[in-house]
Amino acid sequence: MSRLANKEANHSFGLKEKRMPYTIVSEICEGAEDCIPVCPVDCIVWPAEEKKNAKGFKYPYIDMDTCIDCGACLAACPIEGAILDEGKPELQLV
Ligand code: SF4
Ligand code: SF4
Question: Which residue among 46, 77, 85, 94 is the one 20 to 30 A from 5 at the CA level?
């Protein structure tokens, strides 16, 4: 009974919340790659041509159409500010 109630509560919550893709801030990223293996939908990818930011690091980007807003990448990233929990495509240099 309580499990069902929880399920319904989660469902309602899901309907109310709008999904928001995450962003890798290319100029802050240090290419540590910790984010890539934890993404459950494999939407953190490298640019077709390898590029480096002003700090000299290569950086992946998040496919915002595929991101499911789970937060795993942000939890795994060791660089403060490299991942934002909102969609800011202008900060992803791809
Ligand atoms: S976003 Fe964070 S974990 Fe992912 S490559 Fe950049 S620095 Fe590494
Ligand atoms: S929030 Fe989740 S789905 Fe989106 S890029 Fe990060 S790990 Fe992948």
Answer: 85
Domains of the chain: 19-91 (3.30.70.20)
Distance, CA of 50 to CA of 73 (rounded, Å): 21
Using CA atoms, how far apart are residues 89 and 7, in angstroms rounded to an integer? Answer: 33
User: Quick one: pLDDT band at residue 50, thresholds 50, 70, 90?
Assistant: confident
Which of 27, 28, 35 for mutating ligand 1's site (highest number of atoms within 8 Å of CB)? 35
24: left (phi over 0), alpha (psi -120 to 50) or beta: beta
In DSSP terms, 83 is beta-bridged to: 24
